[in-house]
Specification:
globular, 3-stranded parallel β-sheet, alpha/beta
Length: 254
């Protein structure tokens, strides 16, 4: 029987730092979420020492171990002042040195871990295919599926070797969208065989690398699900394609 607490553990509230007040304004929400028994929190902003103290407090007050997440695509300094900020991954890849990418993954994970952040919502596994794409661009590791698959593997393995969970996003790929999914629902009208041969390659590599989590794309793929439901809500894409065909059995997050 599924209980209220079981369902609560599927929730990851976002906690935002504010200039002047820090995390103080979020205290009522934090207390309510802990009482409910949520599975973790995503932290946005803050000074690294304050973030470290908050993450420790959250773990102590929770009745179970928490996932403490942050989006650190460009290093821990992307979110937390005092930590190291890095260039977009496209700039690092442009160096032509895979060791530089691995060092970026390791450094980010080490700094995250010292702050109590155990889940990095990265890397972006979408292909950089369209100049007019409003959401990918320099966040991507490139446009060649085979090369990106290799780079994805290197980044994930470097991150997770340091004890921080990685997150491959945005399944099954947002490289072909020309609208922002946070504003409207884009549709990728491409044959299924082309999507599976190209766009899915980096995600296959991520699964082979043992990626701990997979973030969905809020995008419709009619060739994969004729109902035109976005991947986030699609049983065909998440259950049949991701779970059954690709044999992915770790965490899925929206």
């Amino acid at each position: 029987m599924t209980t209220r607490r079981d369902l609560a553990q599927l929730l990851i509230p976002v906690i935002r730092w504010a200039p002047g007040t820090g995390f103080a304004d979020e205290r009522p929400r934090i207390d309510a979420a802990l009482a409910l028994g949520v599975g973790g929190f995503q932290l946005v902003g803050g000074e690294q020492d304050v973030v470290r103290a908050l993450a420790k407090e959250l773990q102590i007050k929770s009745k179970h171990p928490l996932l403490i997440a942050a989006e650190l695509e460009r290093g821990a300094g992307q979110q937390f002042s005092g930590a190291t900020g890095l260039p977009p991954v496209a700039a690092i890849v442009a160096l032509g040195d895979i060791e530089a990418l691995k060092r970026a993954g390791r450094l980010t994970a080490r700094e995250a871990r010292t702050m109590g952040v155990n889940w990095n919502l990265a890397p972006v596994c979408d292909l950089d295919l369209l100049a007019e794409n409003p959401v990918v661009g320099s966040r991507a590791l490139g446009g060649d599926p085979r090369k990106v698959a290799s780079l994805v593997t290197a980044w994930i393995e470097s991150c997770q070797a340091e004890g921080v969970l990685a997150c491959a996003k945005h399944f099954p790929g947002m490289g072909r969208v020309v609208a922002d999914p946070s504003v409207e629902l884009p549709s990728v009208d491409l044959p299924a065989d082309q999507l599976k041969d190209q766009d899915l390659q980096p995600f296959r590599a991520a699964i082979s690398a043992g990626v701990a989590s997979m973030m969905t794309a809020h995008v419709a793929y009619p060739a994969l699900d004729s109902s035109r439901a976005p991947a986030t809500l699609s049983r065909e894409i998440l259950q049949w394609l991701l779970r059954q065909q690709l044999k992915y059995d770790n965490l899925i997050v929206s």
